[in-house]
Fold this protein.
Amino acid sequence: MRSLRNILWLTGKELRAIRGDRVMLVLIAYVFTLAVWLVSDAASTEVDHLATAVVDEDRSQLSARLTDAIRPPLFAEPVPMTAPEAAAAQRAGKAILVLTIPPDFERDLHAGHQTTLQILVDATAVAQAGNGASFLRQTLAQELSAALAPRAVSSDPVTVVFRNAFNPNLTSSWFSAVMQLMNNVTILMLILSGASMIREREHGTIEHVLVMPVRPHEIVAAKILASGAVILAASLFSLVVVVEGAMGVPVAGSLALYAGGAAIYVVAVASLGLLLASFTRTMGQFGLLVIPVIVLMILLSGGMTPLESMPDWLQVLMRTVSPATHFVIFAQAVLYRGAGLELVWPEMAMMAGMATVAVTIVLARFRKVLAG
Amino acid sequence: MQPVARLSGVSHRYGAVTALDAVSLEIPAGVMAGLIGPDGVGKSSLLALVAGVRRGQAGAVEVLGGPMAERHHRAAVAPRIAYMPQGLGRNLYPTLSVVENLQFFGRLFGQSAAERDARIAMLLDATDLAPFPDRPAGKLSGGMKQKLGLCAALIHDPDLLILDEPTTGVDPLSRRQFWELIARVRATRPGMSVLTATAYMEEADRFDWIAAMEAGRVIATGSPADLRARTGAASLEEAFVALLPAAVRAGHAAVPVLPRRDTGGRIAIEAEGLVKRFGAFTAVDHVGFSIPEGEIFGFLGSNGCGKTTTMKMLTGLLDPTEGVTRLFGRELGRSDMTARLGIGYMSQAFSLYGELTVRQNLILHARLYGVAPERRLARLAEVMAEFDLAEVAEAMPESLPLGIRQRLQLAVAMIHEPPILILDEPTSGVDPVARDGFWAVLMRLSREKGVTIFISTHFMNEAARCDRISLMHAGRVLEVGTPAEIVTRRGADSLEAAFIAALEAEAESVESGADVPVPAPGPPRGRLSAALTRAYAYSWRETLELARDPIRLFFALLGPVILMLAMGFGISFDVDRLSFAVMDQDQSAESRRLTEGFSAIPQFGETAPFASPTELQTRMGLGGVTLALDIPEGFGRDLHRGDVPEIGLTFDGAMPFRAQTAQGYALGVLQDFTEKIAAEEGIGTTSKVGFETRYLFNQAFESANAMVPSVLMLILMLVPAVMAAVSVVREKETGTIANFHATPVSRIEFLLGKQLPYLALAWVSFWVLIALGVTVFAVPLSGSLAALAFAALVYVTATTGFGQLISAFTRTQVAAVFATAVVAIIPTVNFSGLVVPVSSLGEGGRIFGLAFPGAWFQPVSVGAFLKGFGWPEALSAAAVLGVFALGYLALAILSLPKQER
């Protein structure tokens, strides 16, 4: 009872400390509003305005028609070039795809000869090149069959109905907005909780707290509660007002369930922040330590590139040490696919487990670290 | 004789706070001049203005015969002034040894190696630091730090020596040695002027000339004897109080030394054989004492003798290695909560919450100490009245003068009315008036309430007020007794003399008393060689510091490796085994053939079929299925009849990139299938057009091949920039930036000197990353490695320069780290070709990307690995990167003020 009261009062103190830190408040406000919106539109791994050059050695009606078929948004307006120009452009990274239409293409085709269209792909743009090439092939094939058999309603023996579940138009900002939100939770939580510990150490206040009749777990709990509550509230606000409201991203699942999972995640990351802080003496050192951790947690969370594309050992490693991978699976399942508790509880349990382990280590190190 | 410095109408403000208010003053040359007054009256600002480290705001400051507002004059007199800022060892580098510190200062004044070595040897000899040339400055005691600071200031034979509270927090013996040293220096260099600020009145009493300051104004000047005569006071301390304006003086009264009441002889604190070892070092060596209830027990000793460690053991903050502590007969255990309720503790540094107001601090502590809710408000009022805090109840502690802050700390320590108070140097740095006020409260607590007070101090007049004192040295207690007893026992005439005698008896090295001979100044050196020496001073020191800081070294050397491994393996666009599931309602040969078409290619991995759309919903909901194929009943029949059957493909759109990739492969499979069927059935037109798709530069189409060169660009942006930014801001934070302000080093020497080690380190990282890319990730290197290495060298020059530019605007290390990371990462990740090719960016994004060096280096890095780039491409990129490097340097020079504002 006394312990609970102490936690409560210390939490109040921590909240005041956050309120007093103007820079941090501005950062939180910026990151959960503008930044979510800005970054969600920036880098995407989808094919989008891919720079394409066309080497048209046929100069026929058909070749012109094919060139016209290459259009935004998938491709940038194609640039006509000669073969050497195209090679140079591709080397310089100015063209990702080069389509070469051979001489006498249209004539050969009408004469019933086999001809070949060549697509050269700059494979150094790995994210887009593969899909870009296959979309280009698709576009050209469609255009060709439309040009050659205009009257046939369908020349295909099979009709395929494509459907994209959860995101019908594969709008990239739906995905990136939510992932960005999750990244921001990770970044700010690590910094905020770690900073709350180091600030006390730098100012010598933690020593003062330790001579009071307050136990280390009360101090730790207060720090996690206060910083966690702030970030959780900010992220829910951002999800509802910015992502769902302003950006119009539909959120499929239960907000309450998401909040529950996010609360567990926030506790896990806050504990991790405290753990990192226990290895450093100053904010500067903490910053140097936390940046690689942030980059790793975010890049390898499965929120940037699919988890299953990583080597197996790395997947296993990340699932074991990083709560972020579980949170990404959890959040994608709940927010996009409307999954319920019965589907996502294992992820929640994993995050809770990690939080427990981190808090245990922090408490074990607490006295030793502060004394030294 | 010309005054060494003349101030007329000088005012200085920090925001709304006025530090100096129209001060006009002439400081005589060739004498010991002093500034006295409470803290926060503007002494430090005045000294900084005279030293030229702070830019003047209003009024004229003339030093050594010229105006300090003029850059040329400042540059000309800088080598003749030495400035030692406030704080123990504040301008020293803690990880550098004694000699290394002095070497650094010698280089800053452009001295040659021979001249430096000669001067350092003489200074160390004269200051008794000679036995410890290799001890890190951070491990020196307070007194030794100040001696080393003085050596650093004297290394260039200054004509004006400016010392800002050099002896605050230093024990009496070290203090005396410090002043003896100054006297000897002055004996050999009679022309030297010394200007000192001090809080110790007995020290100021020995100066030739003093200026008393109060609230940004000079209230009196003259020799100490003058001031005493003018006020008719016996001591300078009393004279100073008498000189104060009536309003300030009103609260002051001499501390009454009241007799102690007999409290029945209960023992409040009893320590027996306390030992504390840190590794091999014994900080406290069998210390024991017993203190009766209600006594004021003074704890004296040299700096670093184990006082603080002993006090921490008494409070239970540290567990002793051996020995026991009893509080009122009860043994103090580990994490003893009840015992803590009986102790009030005040640590050396201010340790209350700066973000809470005075009242909030008091309430929080009342709660945590379990003051009953119904008693809380009453107690709060009592404490506010007792410690005179009512007026500042709503103020933030940071905004209060040190004296009031210390009263607040005492109030907090007393909030739960503990019978024992343990106070660790509570009055260090506090001015005389505030100190007396503080002691009046202590007296009252002890005499009226019977509180036992255990207090450590460096002030002898405070020690004299204690009932009993103990002298501690090197972890052991030398003397315990009443002040009078100790004076008699040591045969001394004052407590200070007794103290010094006790310490001197212990100290092995006897004061050498050697004079400070002035070495002949070296031959004048060329401007360039002096400039190079100064720049090298920073490079050399930065390298030493870096080599001794494990966290920064970890970040600089292992950070890139970890990031490269994680990103090389982690950012992969190679898609294989995308999970797909089928609902085959036809179960015909054709439907199986279609399914096999999917499972045949490595990009798809078949999972268990699903039986209903609901099941699919669930499985896709968990992310277990990326692609679902729905084949209707009658699919095979329809196909043969020439009817066009309809199949459904559902993708998990939650991750658009993955869905798009799956679509691409699915289209290929379907096209293949329909072409075969069409050929077999003889329907439709078989296309005569073939497609030849060739993947250039990366035939295997492996993510790692493309990511490794791009990640190289990202890492060489992020890590060197953060390191360089931290290197400058660290100096601002620790205060060593004062050396940059106070010495002749120029901005360009400072920046280039500091940049060089990081540049070299980043280039080493480059080679490590290249080795990693070629071995671990097996990326072929088709172009010229030498050309790439050259471009990388220019690139890291630009990125370290970028970090330095950021550091000019930031004040704290944490701000520097995050500002650099945020500013560097956003354009580098999004607009430099890491994920999205620059050619696919919109106009805005492309321009934004090209405004940072990353977008220029990325094509060269990728090109040298995969496209066979050689010198021509590398040189043209290097030219642009070189412009970035120069631009960043120029901007950093412009934004880094040589003087503080």
Summary: Chain B has a mean pLDDT of 84.
